[in-house]
Amino acid sequence: MTTVLIVEDEMYLAMMAEDILLDAGHQVFKAARLPNALALAAAERFDAALLDINLAGVEVFPLAEELRRRGVPFTFTSGYGTNGIPPDYRDYPVLQKPYIAEQLVDTVTAMLASGEADRNARDPG
């Protein structure tokens, strides 16, 4: 079973995303604040992550950097498109909020496929 980290400070959106991903067969971990998300990342292994850019006024980029260092694919989520994304992260996808179930599942599926390709490239056999 694949694991997805959802970092979202809007409880309703986090619960909706969790329900959609659980229905799609994924295991889900959630965090609403950066310290909790960093603690989860230190304690658990994730196959992919959805990262709200702004968590109650705190930017999620320290977590994004940790996930990038570990090779965990992630997508930013935002109600404002690509506004506020530093140049170092502009190549990462952004999922517009509010979520549309099919887009959310497709985004996670694409991340998992890219993560699998990256793992195969690092360890071909």
What does this structure look like?
The model has no long low-confidence stretch (mean pLDDT 90). Strand 1, helix 1 (11-23) and strand 2 (27-31) form a beta-alpha-beta unit. Helix 2 runs parallel beside helix 3 (61-70). The strands form two sheets. The protein has a five-stranded parallel β-sheet, sandwiched between helices. The chain has a two-stranded antiparallel sheet with strand order 4-5. The radius of gyration is 13 Å and the shape is globular. Helix content is 44%, strand content 22%. The chain is of the alpha/beta class and 125 residues long. The two termini are 21 Å apart.
- Cα shape: globular
Judged by helices, strands and strand pairing, the structural class is: alpha/beta
N- to C-terminal distance:
21 Å
Radius of gyration, in Å, reads: 13 Å
Please bin the fraction of helical residues.
40-55%
Strand content: 15-25%
The major sheet is characterized as: 5 strands, parallel
Mean pLDDT across residues: 90
Number of continuous helical runs: 4
Strand order of the largest sheet: 2-1-3-6-7
User: SSE string, helix = H, strand = E?
Assistant: EHEHEEEHEEH
Low-confidence stretches: none
Number of strands: 7
